[in-house]
Design a protein that fits this description.
Sufe protein. Chain: A; three-stranded antiparallel sheet; mainly alpha; 55% helix
Length: 143
């Protein structure tokens, strides 16, 4: 397996396709979560907290000053599998423009990864909350 930092979402989909079952895929997510850099404690505030998640999740965005207005995400959680899911979100969205984020069919990506089938309802709701946070940031950037 490549490290999460060097892997593209397409490579992750291929890796998930090659794995035999959800337990193996879940292990990959947990490994990816271990690689996610820790967020500095001063960024873990009530304002950066993603609500609707079963675990504690924090997410911040920095937006470039150039005309592209690229969005870079920093995120963290106290749950390892959620850290893996955050890594997937960062793979898909971070380094993209607000328009690219709006144009991304994240549900199709999650479906290809099997996350729509294998995550518990509570985890799906939390994942939805994380995606909503990114999409809100993108919409505010476009406004």
């Amino acid at each position: 397996m490549s490290t999460a930092a060097s892997m593209t979402i397409e490579e992750l989909i291929e890796e998930f396709d090659d794995l035999s079952d959800w337990a193996d895929q879940c292990e990959v997510l947990i490994d990816m979560g271990r690689e996610l850099p820790n967020m500095p404690p001063e960024l873990k505030t009530e304002e950066t907290k993603v609500h609707g998640c079963q675990s504690n999740v924090w997410m911040v965005a920095s937006i470039s000053d150039d005309e592209c207005r690229t969005i870079e995400l920093t995120a963290d959680s106290d749950a390892m599998i959620v850290r893996g899911l955050l890594t997937v979100i960062i793979m898909v969205y971070s380094g993209r423009t607000a328009q690219e984020i709006n144009d991304t069919d994240i549900k199709a990506i999650f479906s290809r990864l099997g996350l729509d089938r294998h995550l518990s309802t509570a985890r799906k709701n939390g994942l939805g909350g994380m995606v909503n946070r990114v999409q809100t940031i993108a919409k505010e950037t476009l406004a």
